[in-house]
Amino acid sequence: MKNQKTVVPTKLALAKRLAVSRGTLDTYLCLAGAPDRGADGWDVEAVAAFIAARAESDATASKASDTIGKLRAREIGLRCERLKFKLECERRDWVKKTEVAQSIVRIMGPAVNLMEQKLVAEYPSEVAGLNDVASVRVYGRRVYDDMCVAMHKLAEEWPA
Q: Is residue 45 included in any domain, yes or no?
């Protein structure tokens, strides 16, 4: 899922997605080094990155008297940066801290309860009836395995 490209079929759709006019889009796409249209359409991230970089250089290259052009180039750059961030959020490259915290609480709550049940309620009665160390180790291994299963659910929730 992380390597998926966001593609739009037409320049009009690309302009809408980038929140720029079609003329502004054409101006940037005519520049040297602009991304070309692929077989399946325009790569939104590549075009946004190109326009953001060019808009930033346009903003710094503007003359001091060309304040409106400088501000316009900066605005276009900021729009492209916001779009890149939005696309990264859609791909789940970025997640909210609250989502992570809720996942930890949801998954670790049962794991903590399991640990309490095994170590406080079951462990003393299990060990009391065992005479050899090997049997205690086998029971300890089972408790450990149960805890590992509970903890691996957190890794499954947030795959790398």
A: yes
**What does pTM read for this prediction?**
0.49
Question: Angle formed by the axes of helices 11-18 and 22-29, to 10°?
Answer: 100
Q: Which of 46, 75, 90 marks a domain boundary? A: 90
Q: Which two tokens stand for residue 41?
A: 């359409």
**DSSP H or E segment with residue 44:** helix 44-61
**Residue span of the structural domain in which 74 resides:** 7-90
Same domain, 79 and 114: no
Tell me the β-bridge partners of 7: 43
Q: What is the pLDDT of residues 13-47, one digit of tens each?
A: 888 888 888 888 888 888 888 888 888 899 888 88
In whole angstroms, give the CA distance from residue 25 to residue 6. Answer: 17
